[in-house]
Amino acid sequence: MSETASTARAPVALVPSLGPLLHEWLPRQRWFAGxxxxxxxxxxVSATELLPIGTAGPGLLHLLVRVQQPGLASxxxxxxxxxxxxxxxxxxxxxxxxxxxxxxxxxxxxxxxxEGLSDPRLAALLLERLRTxxxxxxxxxxxxxxxxxxxxxxxxxxxxxxxxxVYGDAYILKIYRRVYPGANPDLELPLALSRAxxxxxxAPVAWYETGxxxxxGASTLGVLQPYLRGSQDGWxxxxxxxxxxxxxxxxxxxxxxxxxxxxxxLADALPTxxxxxxxxxxxxxxxxxxxDAAAQAVPALMPYVPGLRAAFxxxxxxxxxxxxxxxxRVHGDLHLGQTLRTRDGEWSVIxxxxxxxxxxxxxxxxxxxxxDVAGMLRSFDYAARWYRPWNPDWAQRCRDAYCTGYADASxxxxxxxxxxxxxxxxxxxxxxxxxEARHRPDWLSVPMAAIRRLAEQPSxxxxx
Length: 464
Hints:
The chain is α+β, with helices and mostly antiparallel strands. Helix content is 37%, strand content 20%.
């Protein structure tokens, strides 16, 4: 393959010719964030032939496309998506599930386009590009170590907001479908942790981006990391413990230590700030606004709004920290499903992208570390309620053990800041109510139980 990009022919006509197919296909994808709103148009950001489109075999077309939708909260500009389209004259039967459609006009007229990641030949090509760093048209590929060739690819089915490929059980490539300007924290933070010597997070091996590496224009498109073969995710481990009636406090305490080690390394590697009274008031105001919006969407929240708002207002009250809090870069979406216990019994933390629905600037903003702690406490509660009957003692023991482990490694017990911990846990529970009401109504009772507790809980008490 040529070391320089073959830019897609007639790019002006490319998207209009693909538009009817994308209009049907794109909203059906799990990673498409604009579900429920009509797609009114597409605008091409860039088009690159990663594998030139010929007549003898498949081509691979890399597109960045803005999707225009009315009423989109992020508009303007419209959301930008990364597409990797395979192009063939005839689609083999084994690739039939990946079909997008047959193009009838424009530069690809008469060709069949399909989800390129489903084609092992094209998925292998992505690894080859990462093995040979440098620019390719508007894209740039980088790596930190030598990557073996010939590793067979397979697609992971578990991804929701992104797509992932595993290569030979040695590496995993996460491909960010919804693209934002700037470095993705899922690359930025693991790189910083790796340079700081933190082994709790798999270090990036390679990545690709837009903008030829220019900081003002670069957007992270994909990151390759070691694949922790044989590891088990924390969520499934917790459910297994519940189903067998086994205690989980040893694991929870070790997970608390791992979280604290990651926070400590991030604070050493990246700048920290102090949130004064204006910043804490703004923090509490943001939580209150999210509560109001959620209560409008889910009327079941209405009776609890005064008590929940009191949890947010308590954040700005003078106390042990005299109304100030230390803030730093954090994970941003920490829960049991974002952790892995490796074969040697050690915990690793993964997926530093944060909450994908939030703007990148917000996800990269320094936050008090207790935000991550609150997310994990909510996750223990979810696990205990997933397995019936509800086991509140199991959840409380895990919560206490996790906080104890965190204090062991950091010297700071998150329970020593009860107002802030309660506020963040309340904010997370409000988010969960909105999510469950929209996507899993049968599970609405899980966060609503926490809502009832948190609305009545004094700000100086840490209850389950």
